[in-house]
Amino acid sequence: MAVFTPLSDDQVAEFLERYTVGRLQTLKGVPQGTENSTFFVTTEQGEWVLTLFEQGGFEDLPFFVDLLDYLAARRLPVPGPVHDRDGVALQRLAGRPALLFPRMPGSHPSAPNLAQCAALGDALGRMHQASQHFTGERANPRDLDWLTRRHREVLPFLSGDDQALMSREIADYTQAFDGIELPSGAIHGDLFRDNTLYDGDRLGGIIDFYNGCTGELLFDLAIVINDWASDETGDLDADRYEAILGAYLAHRPLTGQERELWPTMLRMTALRYWLSRLLVIHVDPPAHDITPHDPARFRTLLGKRLEAAPPGFPDAMA
């Protein structure tokens, strides 16, 4: 979240007249973020989040709107977009596509405890159970084909050892997933800790679905485990790992193929973020003046996943 397109009180007050959310009381730009302009809006009737979309991919916005409507209707903790008086969610403001959301309660957990991990696993399991029936389609923009194509662009910037590691890993993934069809559905695609909000141990909301797509559910789960269950050194914390997976598997047990490919998927999603962060630094600089994320964290995670197999699945759900 950030502000790249400033808005005045008058602009937002006029914009809010399209809705039945009350009159503007306060408007505050949110400084954190990398892609879109975000504002906290307070009206007589509550608190809201206004997002202006600053970069390409606008053709995908109806997918995000439909997915959030679908999940919110199933009582998942996501911010369903607010629809205007005519039933339309996707708007334009200051020449940008715009969406208005209810503001979800809580803050990002920097060091999630076991109760918070279990709440996340429970919500993700319910989300994946429901999302397999969502009919919208958006190809995964960071799938194995993307890894195969784009990793060659960063090889000149890596050491010889890292070049060999990246190329060898992608060859392994290609072989492991060849001809395999894993359970798929709509996924979040970027469910890091800073894309959740907690009020104490209660999960107040899962936010920022703009990497959402149609993809393998195991891919989404592996992203979560690599972020939520890894300690500062990159090793998996067994208690957090079990808390997330135990709650998740209660809603969606894994297939035999998914269990077999689980270690490989953990490696592949670690490499996915190593590569994407390398691309931002060396090939595709951000459109705005921001500090890119450090790729080293995910190079470390990949090394740790190669050094040791993940813990087993919780006994009751294996």
Terminal Cα span: 38 Å
Within the largest sheet, what's the order of strands?
1-2-3-5-4
CATH architecture of the largest domain: Alpha-Beta Complex
Averaged pLDDT = 94
- What value does the Rg take, in angstroms? 20 Å
CATH class of the largest domain: Alpha Beta
The helix tally amounts to: 9
Describe it.
The protein is α+β, with helices and mostly antiparallel strands. The chain has 2 domains: 9-102, Phosphorylase Kinase, domain 1; 114-317, Aminoglycoside phosphotransferase (APH), C-terminal lobe (Aminoglycoside 3'-phosphotransferase, Chain: A, domain 2), CATH 3.90.1200. 41% of the residues lie in helices and 15% in strands. It is built from 9 helices and 9 strands. It has helices spanning 9-16, 61-73, 114-131, 144-154, 160-177, 217-228, 238-249, 256-282, 296-307; strands spanning 24-29, 37-43, 46-52, 91-93, 96-102, 184-187, 196-199, 202-206, 213-216. The strands form 3 sheets. It has a 5-stranded antiparallel β-sheet, with helices on one face. Strands 6-9 form a two-stranded antiparallel sheet. Strand 1 (24-29) and strand 2 (37-43) form a beta hairpin. The longest helix has 27 residues, at 256-282. It is globular. The two termini are 38 Å apart. The model has no long low-confidence stretch (mean pLDDT 94). Belongs to the pseudomonas-type ThrB family. Keywords: Amino-acid biosynthesis, ATP-binding, Kinase, Nucleotide-binding, Threonine biosynthesis, Transferase. Pathway: Amino-acid biosynthesis; L-threonine biosynthesis; L-threonine from L-aspartate: step 4/5.
